[in-house]
Design brief:
The protein has 221 residues and is α+β, with helices and mostly antiparallel strands. It folds into two domains: 43 residues; 170 residues. Helices cover 23% and strands 38% of the residues. It has three helices and eight strands. An eight-stranded mixed beta sheet has the order 5-1-2-3-4-6-7-8. It is globular. The termini are far apart.
Length: 221
């Protein structure tokens, strides 16, 4: 009887051991899934609102420009070095004076992209069919150093209308509009050479591509 009891006890302990192995395996799988989900969400979201908030400029800075503009037929480039889409979007441009001849620009974008067939995808993971059309949001922050034009070519507030860039897939844009030159003298320097921050999120169905100064991730295919 004692021997049978010991055998039964060993079998019982063995079953408990396997049960704990199964439970541990399930926990590891769930934990891995949660980490994957968190990382996936982190890669598919870009907190551009935080980066383009007024607090990123000097709080005491006086707002001198607050305009909106519609842009048509701008061309978009990807990680493969090629242009892959044409964009139509609305942009808002806010400029704050920080000190004499120093300004902080916050520019936000929201619009749609029209992908072009047979071009490398923006994340450079494949070739586009031309049906991957979606939406994008983002913008940039820049420091401008230089003097303002005494009598700017465009209004300082409100909607300044629509501009058609007329871009082709090679990047030729005869209608391109450089808003900075409408308000600042040609000697001013700013986003043309260096941005303090920039980033956009492009979405097509359940896919997204992030293109940012913080790094690129994902793709739309």
């Amino acid at each position: 009887m004692a021997k049978k009891h010991k055998i039964a006890k060993k079998i019982h302990s063995h079953k408990h051991f396997h049960l704990w192995i199964v439970i541990l395996s399930v926990v590891v799988v769930i934990f891995g899934y949660l980490l994957l989900t968190i990382n996936s969400n982190a890669k598919s979201n870009l907190n551009y609102q935080e980066q383009l908030a007024k607090k990123q400029c000097e709080q005491s800075g006086k707002q001198i420009i607050n305009i909106t503009q519609r842009v048509l037929n701008s061309v978009d480039s990807g990680e493969g070095g090629n242009n892959w889409a044409f964009d139509n979007y609305n942009r808002q441009i806010k400029v704050y004076k920080q000190s004499e001849n120093t300004f902080c620009a916050l520019v936000t974008y929201e619009g749609k992209f029209d992908s072009q067939a047979d071009q490398k995808s923006p994340g450079n993971t494949g070739i586009l069919t031309g049906k991957e059309d979606g939406t994008f949001k983002g913008g940039y922050r820049a420091t401008i150093k230089g003097s303002m034009i005494e009598d700017p070519e465009a209004a300082l507030k409100g909607n300044i209308g629509t501009v058609d860039y007329q871009c082709d897939i090679s990047g030729n844009c005869p209608g391109a509009y450089n808003w900075m030159t409408k308000y600042f003298n040609t000697s001013a320097t700013g986003f043309t050479s260096n941005l303090d921050w920039w980033g956009w999120t492009y979405k097509y169905k359940n896919k997204s591509w992030i293109n940012s100064s913080e790094g690129n991730s994902g793709d739309i295919i």
